[in-house]
Amino acid sequence: MNKGTVKFYNSLKGFGFIKDDDSSKEFYVNASGLKEDIRENDKVTFDLEEGRKGKNAVNVRKA
Questions:
Q1: Hey, where are the domains in the chain?
Q2: DSSP assignments along 15-57, one per residue
Q3: What CATH class is the domain 2-62?
Q4: Rounded distance, CA 55 to CA 63, Å?
Q5: 47: how many CB neighbours lie within 10 A of its CB?
């Protein structure tokens, strides 16, 4: 389980980016990968899954 911060999230379009606390890498997140609603600057936990263009955040929950 990774920990990070929501850097950007557009609830109308259903996507955003999470910055990993350890690596400082940013990962794409789609609304389908959320376990609960998130907003910008929320602290979250997440898993990573290989997507079409790299790793995506899934199973995203507020920390």
A1: 2-62
A2: EEEEEETTT--EEEEEGGGBSS---TT-EEEEEEEEETTEEEE
A3: mainly beta
A4: 20
A5: 14
**Parallel/antiparallel/unpaired status of strands 54-62 and 26-30:** parallel
Residue 53: predicted pLDDT: 93
Amino acid at 32: S
Tokens 């920990």 sit on residue: 3
Question: 12-32: per-residue pLDDT in tens?
Answer: 999 999 999 999 999 999 999
Structure tokens at 11: 């609830």
Exposed (0-12), middle (13-18) or buried (19+): which is 7, by Cβ within 10 Å? middle
